[in-house]
TrEMBL record:
Organism of this sequence: Frankia nepalensis
Keywords, alphabetical: Zinc
One Pfam family named in its UniProt record: PIG-L
Organism lineage string: Bacteria, Bacillati, Actinomycetota, Actinomycetes, Frankiales
Name this protein carries in UniProt: PIG-L family deacetylase
Region (Disordered): 171-194
């Protein structure tokens, strides 16, 4: 395997979605490159919080063993029914021209001689518009670069829905699709993530729980405050490593090139 490039929407997504896999690959000697589409802030690029979040990303990447970090420079598009106007200095990622954004990523894939690109499933997991755009941009960039295998980070839908039902993840944002014309039928809550039967691979990352927990903890700005997502992150990073490994020790990927209905496989074996 050559370089592995992981495209994420915002700083901290790299830890949440594929932190263990990135740590595993780096430990195995692969060059790992983390690319974020946005700085994770709704303000303009001069806002100090934008710089804080990118600094946290670099600390997270160091914990995971990544060799390079890049930001495509788009603005965070936000989540929910509101669609924020573009800031004066740049465009929101969800509004970015597909070929322009994909072309920039494709240039990086070629420069890195990347053989694998990690992105997100077609639903963007829980429907965040920037996450959906990651899926679209990643697929197009791999096509433009040629010879790049795409693996799409996801979770088993049944597991997530079960956790939501019992209230353990009741603070998870409800997925919302794009706004539709008045009168057009809508699904109020489109399905999240991927049905288990459609997931191609799982990665056992229990050996890398310490690195994954450290990467999550590096995003201190996302641990602060009274909101439920921050409280959940604070709880997670305070867990003992063995318990954190139990809760976050598997990561899952779709494979667009896999034969539908193929076996649910372990993708990587951790170095002995």
């Amino acid at each position: 395997m050559g370089s592995v490039v992981a495209l994420h929407a915002h700083p901290d997504d790299e830890a949440l979605w594929s932190g263990g896999t990135l740590a595993l690959l780096a430990a195995a000697g692969h060059r790992v490159v983390i690319v974020v589409a946005t700085d994770g802030h709704l303000g303009d690029g001069a806002d100090p919080e934008a710089g804080v979040r990118l600094a946290e990303l670099r600390a997270s990447a160091a914990a995971l063993g990544a060799a390079r970090v890049e930001c495509l420079g788009y603005a965070d598009s936000g989540h929910g029914s509101s669609f924020y106007p573009d800031p004066a200095d740049r465009q929101r990622f969800a509004r970015a021209d597909l070929d322009e954004a994909a072309g920039r990523l494709a240039d990086l894939l070629r420069a890195e001689n990347a053989s694998v690109l990690l992105s997100y499933d077609a639903r963007g997991g829980y429907g965040h518009r920037d996450h959906v755009r990651v899926h679209e941009v990643g697929a197009r960039a791999a096509e433009l670069a040629g010879g790049v295998r795409v693996l799409e980070a996801t979770l088993p839908r049944e597991t997530v829905e079960r956790l939501v039902r019992v209230g353990r993840l009741g603070a998870l944002p409800r997925p919302r699709g794009p706004r539709r014309p008045v009168g057009e039928p809508t699904e109020p809550h489109p399905p999240m993530f991927t049905p288990r039967r459609e997931i191609a691979y799982r990665v056992d990352v229990r050996r890398y729980a310490r690195q994954k927990r450290a990467a999550l903890a590096a995003h201190a700005s996302q641990l602060a405050g009274p909101r439920a997502p921050a409280r959940l992150r604070r709880y997670a990073v305070r867990l003992p490593v063995p318990l954190f490994a139990v809760l976050g020790g598997r990561e899952y990927f779709n494979d667009p090139a896999a034969t539908p209905g193929s076996a649910f496989l372990d993708l990587f074996t951790a170095p002995g």
